[in-house]
Design brief:
This protein is mainly α. The protein contains twelve helices and no strands.
C-alpha cells in the first residue's frame, strides 16, 4: 500500500461511523461498547508486542551492540518520560483541547451551530491528539505498515457512531482534521524514513511498541498511564542510538 493509506482508511471510518451514528442513534447498549473496547485493547497489545520485537532487530544490534538495544529503549523511555512530565505534555495537550472547545463553543448563532462546533472540536481532539495518531502516522510514512492506523481507524469509527448520535454532523466534519493532522505526520515519517538508517527506525519502533502497551492498558481500563508524557521518548531513542554508535566506533 502507498504511504498515507492508513490516514485514508481512518478518514473513511470516521465518515462511515458518523453516518451510522446519525441514522441509528443510541441503540448500542453500554455492555456492547465495553466488549468492543476490550477487544480493541487486546488487539492493541498484539500490535504493541510485534512493534516492541524490533528491539531484536539484527541491524539495530549490529549498530549499538547486542546488550545495548534494550538499554537504549529503557533510556529513551526514562529520559523522554522525565522530559515529558516536566514539560507536562499530556496536560498541555488536554489544555489546548479544552481551550479550543471553550472558545469555539461559546455564544453562537443558535443551538444547531453550537452542537456542530462542539461535535467537530470534541471529536477532532479525540481523533487527532493521542499516541496512536503520532505512532501510526510516522510508521505509515516510514514504510513500516499501516496496522496501527488500521486499529485507530476501527476505534475512531466506533467512537464516531456514539458521538454523532448525540452531537450530530460536526462529528463527520472532524474527518477533515484527521486528514490534515495525520497526513502531515505521514509526510514527516516519509522524510524521516529516508534519512534514518534501519537501526534508528528499529529503536523508534521498539520504543513506540511499549507506548502502545500504555494505550492498551487505557483501553482495558487497567491503568490510565500518561502516554502523552512519554511521547518525547520517540525523539530520544534515535539520539541515543547515535551516541552509542559513536562511542563504539
Amino acid at each position: 500500500m502507498f504511504p498515507g493509506f492508513g490516514t485514508v482508511l481512518n478518514v473513511v471510518t470516521v465518515i462511515a461511523g458518523s453516518g451510522v451514528g446519525l441514522l441509528v442513534g443510541h441503540r448500542l447498549p453500554p455492555r456492547t461498547r465495553d466488549v468492543v473496547t476490550d477487544a480493541l485493547g487486546l488487539v492493541t497489545l498484539l500490535i504493541a508486542a510485534t512493534s516492541a520485537a524490533a528491539v531484536l532487530d539484527a541491524g539495530f544490534a549490529a549498530e549499538v551492540g547486542d546488550s545495548a538495544t534494550v538499554l537504549i529503549v529503557l533510556g529513551a523511555l526514562l529520559i523522554g518520560g522525565i522530559a515529558g512530565s516536566l514539560l507536562r505534555v499530556e496536560a498541555r495537550l488536554e489544555g489546548v483541547g479544552s481551550g479550543l472547545q471553550r472558545r469555539l463553543s461559546g455564544d453562537g448563532d443558535g443551538e444547531a451551530r453550537r452542537r456542530f462546533v462542539e461535535g467537530f472540536v470534541t471529536t477532532s481532539l479525540l481523533f487527532c491528539v493521542g499516541p496512536l495518531t503520532i505512532l501510526g502516522s510516522l510508521s505509515d510514512g516510514m514504510g513500516l505498515g499501516y496496522d496501527q492506523l488500521a486499529l485507530k481507524a476501527t476505534m475512531d469509527g466506533f467512537a464516531a457512531v456514539a458521538f454523532a448520535a448525540s452531537l450530530g454532523w460536526g462529528v463527520m466534519a472532524s474527518a477533515i482534521a484527521v486528514a490534515v493532522v495525520q497526513g502531515a505526520l505521514t509526510v514527516v515519517g516519509v522524510i524521516a524514513g529516508s534519512l534514518l538508517g534501519d537501526a534508528y527506525v528499529a529503536a523508534i519502533t521498539a520504543t513506540g511498541g511499549l507506548l502502545l502497551v500504555g494505550v492498551a492498558l487505557r483501553l482495558l481500563r487497567m491503568k490510565p498511564l500518561p502516554v502523552g508524557d512519554l511521547l518525547p521518548a520517540l525523539v530520544v531513542a534515535p539520539i541515543l542510538v547515535s551516541i552509542v554508535a559513536a562511542i563504539r566506533s
